[in-house]
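Thread: Modeling a multi-component assembly for a lab meeting

Hi all, long-time lurker, first post. My supervisor asked me to bring a structural picture of a complex we are working on to next week's group meeting, and I have zero experience with this. I have the sequence lines for every component (667 residues in total). Could someone generate the structure of the whole assembly? Inputs are pasted exactly as I received them:
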Amino acid sequence: MMEKYINHRLKEKNILLMTHIVMGYPSFEASFKIVESMVTAGVDLMELQIPFSEPIADGPVILGANQKALENGATVQRCLQFARQVVASFDIPFLFMSYYNIPYKFGIPAFVDTMATIGLKGAIVPDLPPEEGREFLTEMERSALAPILIFSPNTSIERLRYLAGFARGFVYCVARKGVTGMDTDFSRRLDEYLARCRSATSLPLALGFGVKSAEDVRFLTGKAEIAVIGTATIQLVQERGVAAVAEYISALR
Amino acid sequence: MDDRGYHNGFGGAFLPEILVATFDQLDAVFRQARNDPEFWQTYENIMASYSCRPTPLTFAENLTRHFGGARIYIKREDLNHTGAHKANNVMGQGLLVRRMGKTRVIAETGAGQHGVATATMAARFGFRCTIYMGEVDVHRQRPNVFWMQRLGADVVPVRDGTRILKDAINEAFRDWVSNMDTTHYVLGTACGPHPFPEMVTYFQSIIGKEARQQVMRAENRLPDRVYACVGGGSNAMGIFSGFADEATELVGVEAAGRGLDSGQHASRLCAADASVGVAQGYKTFFLQDQDGQMKETHSIAAGLDYVGVSPILAGFKETGKARFEAVTDDEVVEAASLTIRKEGLIPALESAHAFAQAFKEAPALSRDAIILINQSGRGDKDIFTIADAFDDPGWKEFIIEKAGQYGRERSPAS
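Re: Modeling a multi-component assembly
Sure thing. I ran the full set together rather than chain by chain. Output:
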């Protein structure tokens, strides 16, 4: 379903943009406005992060946003309500992103059912390798939702193929070692890595971690189907407010 | 990694993809070492020449007489170099780091004990070393920060989250995902993703191996009960491994802090507000809310102040292989005080949890019963915390005077 959407959209655009927000940061009202500006500015897909107290794969900016959102009362129920609202309001695919304890505590089947009812298209769970995620993957398949698997630069080719076997929709390729929000060196090494990812799956590739400028997006055009902008927009909101988002996104491509 | 380290449904390896290859390597090197009899011999030798092993078993004659019940023995892990059982784990992991050819180690620390032990190991083996420590703990345990820095470690105060042990663990993971090619994360307890719980238990099992032989030598039979405090669970796993298949009852003692109903405790296996979850790469009982957000914990002993617990002990809880109890801060201070006065031994406040529970049970046991307490660390290095716990006026006077002296040195003109 999502794969089809991506390929369809690629007929009009050279590369798609996926952005990331932390629900409830800086507030739910602001989150809604951010989503609205992003969609208006042409974002093609969006990750909605349910904040977690221990986000080990995230760098300082997203970590801080998680904490702040939790302090402001971003419960899971409130996030679900928010997701319902944005999915009903905007016509692009939305995905959940969170750490495994959130769906685990909710109850995996109930969580996946809720995602399907709301109309989300998939989920990224960075601390859930397929070996630990059998129940989650089965439930996602049953509900025709896409589990977004993650490739990393030090993943062996055998394992890339193994992961590809569980992936649906697209694959999230992490550009480099480290956590979200640090600089990435967009160079030939990245080309080689993306070629390796390509050889392991026929699904579209999204590249994330450190993507922040029009130059980065240009570099990725023709190499990946989706450029993922995460930390950059959160930082932008912190520095220049919600109003700056639309202009920033429009200038990326 | 085929075996994912499950113990009755607890454990696993919930890893971000970027770390999978690193854990595969660690798992392979650990297996290889464990199957190599020479490796254990090298480990024992280094612990004997560098860290006072075997540590003694002390018969607590005065405490035994005081309670008039079971015969009380104390395993003296406080006599390890750096003052706690933490030395066992770090020296063992140091040998693995050498095998992997890595040159830098990182670690989290709560009380500072594991940080000091890791910094010591790094100095000894010639590794670069970075220690992550919650900002709250940096203030609580300043003397340990001093020692880590003198030992050449870079101490990074963690200002995120609740600014204690769990946040330091998260930060160490963030370092690791960037630097895994050169760096090994020396996790300090029997928690975290597989193979850490088994690996740390393996190195700490030296405690149980020795204690078993020592009790047999002294009494010609095994103890009836073995007591150990439980934070992450490494000293408990260490001593329990010597008695795991026997009729000996294993008793793990958690921190009830200001009481199990107070919301200010660190009991994951006895408290109603703990439940099964997945965080920091493994599945176990966590102190968390309904959504799965981790809660703040409290204990007078920084080393027990942690949201999770060894998945192996969580498995023991489910199967009844061990019994778990919790004692309050006040009971702990009282037990420490009694042990100091009666035996001239100064247990760390962490270890004093095990003493407190043993003291509750000893009087009701018969005079020929034998109980064994693991004194996992020494308390004199925690002089600031213990002096606070005793609210010692003379000590406060001294600190005020000392602070005045430093103040005058800084601004001689005023």
